[in-house]
Amino acid sequence: MMANKQRLGVNIDHVATLRNARGAAYPDPVRAALMAEAAGADGITAHLREDRRHIQDKDIEALMDALTVPLNFEIAATVEMQAIALRLKPHAVCIVPEKREERTTEGGLEIAADQSRLADFIIPLSEMGCRVSLFVEADERQLEACVGVGAPVVELHTGAYCDFHAKGDIRATDDELKRIMRCAAFADELGLEVHAGHGLTFGNVGPIAALSEVAELNIGHFLIGEAVLMGLEPAIAEMRRLMQQARA
């Protein structure tokens, strides 16, 4: 299914990172989420990590109470996180890989080798009415496995593409973009809704936003960084403009 209007999900994790650096009550990620919503974000993403390095449990609860746009709740596939999701009932749950030593999410989930466990993990979330997505590499084998575990949505990891782009490696950037293009089309053929995200900026978002199969982009760290310099509303407005320009 080709996506018409492409949605923008704004990840507010690193507002909480800044808050936690001083152990203060500010800046408030819920306030940032409401500002993002007012600026035109179609949804808010927040990742409750096992080590609680940025978003805290109280933030998720407050977001659930405050938002009028959907909350995309990112979690690792653990019993603890599943219980929190089942209690709070967010609009969407995105399952991501997680390692305590990493600075940020590195790569996609290994679905194909863990289908039975992930299928069991997803069933109660789906039965609750939550839209489950899986954060995966652009790889046909993993996408086929996503169908096998019953997930209706995939989010393609764009980190490698963004890293190559930042290094100015034109050939590697082009190769990675072609891989994402191929897999976005393949996922669409499988009946999966396609999202994309990780590392997207003003400078590299265009070719990803231009992919007609990609219904949603989730962008966080860059937008929060730009918010420090130009304000959150102008940063979101510019990202939206670039997405629409690429789409046209």
Strand content: 15-25%
Largest sheet geometry: 8 strands, parallel, barrel
Q: What is the 3D shape?
A: globular
Report the radius of gyration as a whole number of Å.
17 Å
Terminal CA distance reads 18 Å
- Poorly predicted ranges (pLDDT <50, ≥5 residues)? none
| Helix/strand order, N-terminal first | EHHEHEHEHEHEHHEHEHH
Spatial strand arrangement across the major sheet: 1-2-3-4-5-6-7-8
Estimate percent helicity: 40-55%
How many helices does DSSP assign? 11
Structural class: alpha/beta
Indicate the mean pLDDT. Answer: 94
Query: How many beta strands in the DSSP annotation?
Result: 8
Structure commentary:
The chain is α/β, with parallel strands linked by helices. It has helices spanning 13-22, 29-38, 57-66, 79-88, 115-127, 140-149, 159-167, 170-189, 205-209, 221-230, 232-247; strands at residues 7-11, 43-47, 71-75, 92-95, 131-136, 153-157, 193-197, 214-219. The chain has an eight-stranded parallel barrel with strand order 1-2-3-4-5-6-7-8, surrounded by seven helices. Helix 4 (79-88) links the parallel strand 3 and strand 4 (92-95). It is globular, with a radius of gyration of 17 Å.
